[in-house]
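Input record (one chain):
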Amino acid sequence: MTVRSETAPTELVHVLHALDVPAVLAFSGAAADLLVNAEFRALTGSDASQPIRLFENGRPLTPAEHPWTQSLSGTTLTALQLEVECPDGSRRTVIVSSSPLRDKSGAITGAFTIMREAERILPGTLREISINTPALLFTTDAAGRVDSVNARWTTFVGAAAGELLGGGWTKFVHPDELARILDELAAHLVSGEPYISQWRFRRADGTFRWTEIRAEAQRDAQGDIRCWFGSGTDVDAQRRAMESLEFLAQSGATVAGAQDVSAVLDQLAHASLEDLADISIFDLEEEHGSFRRLVVGAPNVRRSTVDVTMAFQAPRKDEPHPIARAMSSGETIHIPDVDEDFIQRSISPPERQDAWRYVNIRSLVSAPMITPDRALGALTLLRTGTSVPFEASDVKVVEEVARRAAVAIENLRLRERERRAARDLQAFADLGESLANSLGLHATLVAAMRAVLPDRADWAFINLMDDRDELRLAAVYQPDAQKHRLLSEHIGELYARPDGERLISTVVRTRLPVFRARIDDDEAARNVNPAILREIRNAGLSSVIVVPLLAGKGTRGTLHVCMENEDRAFAQSDVEFFVEFARRLAPAIANAELFERERRVARSFQDAALPASLPQLPHFTLRAIYEAGKSEALVGGDWYDALSLANGRMVVSIGDVAGSGLSAAVTMASVRQAIRGAAHVRADPGVLLEAADRAVMDDPERRFVTAFVGVIDPADSTITYQSAGHPGPLLRLPDGTLTELTGTGTPLGLRDHQQSNRTRRLPAGSLLVLYTDGLIESTHDILDGEERLRKALLDPAVAAADNPAKMLHDVILTEGSRDDVAILTIQVR
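The corresponding structure, as predicted from the sequence alone:
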């Protein structure tokens, strides 16, 4: 660090040297510049050109953790207790306050740090400094009466300083908080213990924001309280971020536990009011096309306001109304500030405009509820009166809740349809091993037909209804590959002639089978698509049974079994067998379609959870690869993630949710979101895993999840990390040696909370590899997989590759992986 007094404003330099306590003046720039006063040099023996050694609870602080360095990043510190090393090697306890200095535009230009030995009283000069510092600072007398506030308070609340003095500050506190605050203050005035709490203060714009208040008593030589010195920090964003995390966890539990669509809507609507909105509105499109509206208001919202909102149905999709725009475009509509101009432009008719004014809508977010196949409606949240407008972070929460609601509603509808069908059909349980390992629709159809060929028929094919209730050829089976191609090339085509006699339609309509011991060519020509009929003739089919595939009260399709040898013509007794066979096959088809739908949703969860791009830091290059497992049954919960923070650090995570399917993907998305949300509040690996653990514990299924979280600090090229039962990342050092970033933590959901952070330096030329167990379990021999990974990393070409993640994948998984695989690599340049 260099000392350049010419860079410091003259008045601040004079203040620095006039103080009779140790003080530091820091300025931002290409390198941090420090000025210290004589008291600081006397205490530390350093004029800032020598190392300054500070300790917290016995732990030496890194330069990045020094108070002035933190304030250069925007952090205000008040009454922080540290130890400083003196010239004789002893340590003295000091109380530190540090604030960022800002110019007129709000940009940080420097930091002012003041220390006082624990035995000394806050000097009057420091109070004068606090009046002009950019932080929210105040002092009180021994009885707790405010006797000074700085200029930042007057800007914050929009009132003169005199209005805050004495007990005047109480009128700026939210009425719901005041009684609690006064009780807390009374207790601390008696005990003299440091005070920390969060209040809701009314800002100059009339909104209430969460503000963290800290205060510490200053004592005289006899130990009596002389005054209190305190600060305020706006923590509204952090508070609401944590509330969002808690709400998302709660909404996940709500969605998972609901038994019908009405329960999902009602529970989510009520849950969203607790932390997110004043009024919640669900507009749900029913399966027959009409809309259902549910409106719920917070306890403090008048019933008449809810009634007015409920009186209007969902707007038409062609209207400029924000809900209509959300449903028609499939995009979230965020109106931060609703004013008269917006009402005039976007809301009609006049009666609806009057309703908006009556409700006094301040801000709104309308998020579409969509699935991969269709739009279901919209979730709209309103803030009214003097509530804080919705911000970007709120929008993400609303979108996630709407997405969860859509998936839950669609799955509930599918289950409702299954329950209706189950009244008429028995569960598919007796078809046997031929269907045991078949989950996808096409595989199920082929497996079912293979079960009856060639013993009971020579050919089999299945037609399924499309969205227009027309039969299309869906699957074909014939053991001879050459014969099979005759019909399989027509899969997806209409089976019946559009202008035909509609014999097949009769099967669908009457739900009764048709049996032809001998195929009538003229009848077939009047009913079957000519292209398909030509192949039937070429195959020489002679006898046919057509059986409806029933689904509840409808028909899902038709099963056709045929003979090609007249000596093997069907008999009437065969019809009963294939009717029973079709009855058992129909539930399997429904399950397969449900599985494919769930698999698509789960895959969408995974795709959405993976970052669209990776952040890049100077001297750090990130590469990643994700590959879904070969097994159609294994849509798992693997993820990787990397997130840049405002302070220049980067959070990386990787993990694996136990189990597979949609629920595993939902858990994965919840855990990843918890880590991301917590990272913006406090980027500490232990805190991030605690947030993730809470998300897992709130999941009714209580899946256990392995995870690794690291925080990379480019300032000193280190990674601080914790592991929750996840395979330890491997670090390839510049000399080619390998070391594992081990951790002792148990998986999320089983976490014992006893683990502490570990820190590892990442030297230039090293390569850090994070991975999920699919990379080392492809051969079902973990030890062999680990050895293959280590051997690959020893190859210098891997460390130097443009994309080490892909190269590791290609070298190790030459035949692909049965399980999902995620690999994240970090090259240090």
